[in-house]
């Protein structure tokens, strides 16, 4: 079959490849502890589910406006104003079926052929894939363990060229759990203002932080007019399958985003948006409990990993991932890299993790090996999984 050339430029999310392998092994009767999944194991909170069901019963099941239902957009604007300390209104809000489409829209609306986009590496693989697909040039900015996987502003400055158009931020970050500090954000903001750049700030994990270190670049003066902020309901409300996310954009960009929605999805599901209103206006008890539980599990998994020979793990500040350094473990077992380690853990230890390269290519200067573990699984499974990893590595 002869496909359009641009299809060759489309990447993927390796997590789903590993998940398919795990599913196959499970079907063969293998008992696998799966640290690979990037979604909470909790049910969607009851009051949110009820609001969605009530909306369906009330026949709120027709097409909605492409920008999103006004009441939902207002609820989002209110939430963003409260959490990011800014002053936007519903006309800055574009709703999508998940945050992924908004990432695509932002890059396709702003990046021309050959424009460079700086993105975090290791990072969420969809950024690099979509930059390539749109015809831009992805420029990887290394996140290094010595800086707790945050940007080095000098690296950022060095990555800039006349063709740089956009910087992508993701804080709290997938896969490292790092959170950019206010000082980092101030410096990145100064660079983007000075060089007239766009910032796409993926804040999908903003609700899942373990201290008060999270802040958003959009709250810095001069940034709302050059920022596409992305957030959604998949993670903090455990609503991955509902498909609900949004972008906060400067008003001149809203009609473009609406047009992209009209062309591609028409609108996010209407009853899902009613559930979203309940999420933002209803009780926070269940999400707060989830974050408390994630914090307990984070401490459990970090302590456990640091007790395994050849593994060292930082304490992440947000999201539900750890990104331990496994260089010594690979050396001890004479493994070439984290891919070989991932395969060994899966086939000999019945434990699924993701290798470093699921989050972008290693840079030539990179000497360390890492794996990602999601702790969005039960305490019992974490404990059992750690036991299995220990028995493979020691
Ligand atoms: N951004 C990041 C960093 C993610 O990890 C994910 C989900 N894995 C998404 C965006 C996509 O989320 P959604 O379900 O809202 O499309």
What does this molecule look like?
This protein has helices spanning 14-27, 46-57, 70-84, 100-110, 125-134, 153-159, 182-194, 254-264, 270-281, 285-306, 327-332, 338-349, 379-393, and strands at 33-34, 93-96, 116-121, 137-142, 164-170, 198-202, 227-232, 245-248, 321-322, 351-352, 354-355, 371-374. With 394 residues, the protein is of the alpha/beta class. It folds into two domains: 5-43 and 286-393, Alpha-Beta Complex (Aspartate Aminotransferase, domain 1); 47-281, Aspartate Aminotransferase, domain 2 (3-Layer(aba) Sandwich), CATH 3.40.640. Helix 4 runs parallel beside helix 5 (125-134). The longest helix has 22 residues, at 285-306. The termini are far apart. The mean pLDDT is 95.
Can you list the ligands bound to this structure? 4'-deoxy-4'-aminopyridoxal-5'-phosphate
Write out the CATH superfamily name of the largest domain.
Answer: Type I PLP-dependent aspartate aminotransferase-like (Major domain)
* Second CATH tier, the architecture of the largest domain: 3-Layer(aba) Sandwich
Summarize the main sheet: 7 strands, mixed
Helix coverage percent of residues?
A: 40-55%
What is this entry, summarized?
The protein has 13 helices and twelve strands. It has 394 residues and is an alpha/beta fold.
SSE layout:
Blueprint: H1 14-27, E1 33-34, H2 46-57, H3 70-84, E2 93-96, H4 100-110, E3 116-121, H5 125-134, E4 137-142, H6 153-159, E5 164-170, H7 182-194, E6 198-202, E7 227-232, E8 245-248, H8 254-264, H9 270-281, H10 285-306, E9 321-322, H11 327-332, H12 338-349, E10 351-352, E11 354-355, E12 371-374, H13 379-393
Parallel strand pairs: 1-10, 3-4, 3-5, 5-6, 6-7
Antiparallel strand pairs: 2-8, 7-8, 9-12, 11-12
Helix pairs in contact: 2-9, 3-9, 4-5, 4-8, 10-13, 12-13
The structure holds 4'-deoxy-4'-aminopyridoxal-5'-phosphate (PMP).
4'-deoxy-4'-aminopyridoxal-5'-phosphate is lined by residues 38, 98-100, 124, 170, 174, 202, 204, 232, 234, 240, 245.
């Amino acid at each position: 079959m002869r496909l359009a050339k641009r299809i060759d430029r489309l990447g993927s999310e390796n997590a789903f490849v590993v998940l398919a392998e795990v599913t196959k092994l499970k079907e063969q009767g293998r008992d696998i502890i799966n640290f690979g999944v990037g979604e909470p194991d909790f049910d969607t909170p009851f009051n949110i589910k009820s609001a969605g069901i009530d909306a369906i019963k009330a026949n709120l099941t027709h097409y909605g406006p492409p920008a999103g239902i006004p009441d939902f957009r207002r609820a989002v604007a209110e939430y963003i104003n409260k959490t990011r300390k800014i002053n936007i209104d519903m006309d800055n809000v574009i709703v999508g079926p998940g945050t992924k489409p908004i990432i695509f829209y932002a890059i396709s609306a702003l990046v021309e052929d050959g424009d460079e986009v700086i993105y975090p590496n290791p990072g969420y693989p969809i950024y690099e894939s979509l930059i390539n697909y749109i015809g831009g040039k992805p420029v990887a900015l290394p996140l290094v363990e010595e800086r707790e996987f945050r940007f080095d502003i000098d690296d950022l400055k060095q990555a800039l060229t006349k063709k740089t158009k956009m910087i992508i931020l993701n804080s709290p970050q997938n896969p490292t759990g790092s959170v950019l500090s206010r000082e980092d954000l101030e410096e990145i903001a100064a660079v983007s203002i000075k060089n007239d750049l766009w910032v796409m700030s993926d804040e999908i994990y903003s609700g899942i932080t373990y201290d008060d270190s999270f802040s958003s670049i959009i709250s810095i003066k001069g940034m709302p007019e050059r920022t596409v902020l992305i957030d959604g309901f998949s993670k903090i409300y455990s609503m991955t399958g509902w498909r609900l996310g949004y972008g906060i954009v400067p008003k001149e960009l809203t009609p473009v985003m609406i047009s992209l929605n009209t062309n591609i999805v028409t609108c996010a599901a209407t009853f899902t948006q009613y559930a979203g209103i309940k999420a933002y206006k209803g009780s926070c008890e269940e999400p707060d409990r989830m974050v408390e539980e994630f914090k307990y599990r984070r401490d459990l998994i970090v302590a456990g990993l640091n007790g395994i020979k050849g593994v060292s793990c930082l304490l992440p500040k947000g999201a539900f991932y750890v990104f331990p350094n496994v260089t010594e473990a690979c050396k001890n077992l004479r493994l070439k890299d984290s891919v070989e380690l991932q395969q060994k853990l899966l086939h000999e230890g019945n434990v699924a993790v993701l290798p470093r390269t699921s989050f972008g290519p290693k840079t030539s200067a990179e000497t360390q090996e890492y794996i990602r573990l999601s702790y969005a699984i039960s305490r019992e499974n974490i404990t059992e999984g750690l036991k299995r990893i220990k028995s493979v590595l020691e």
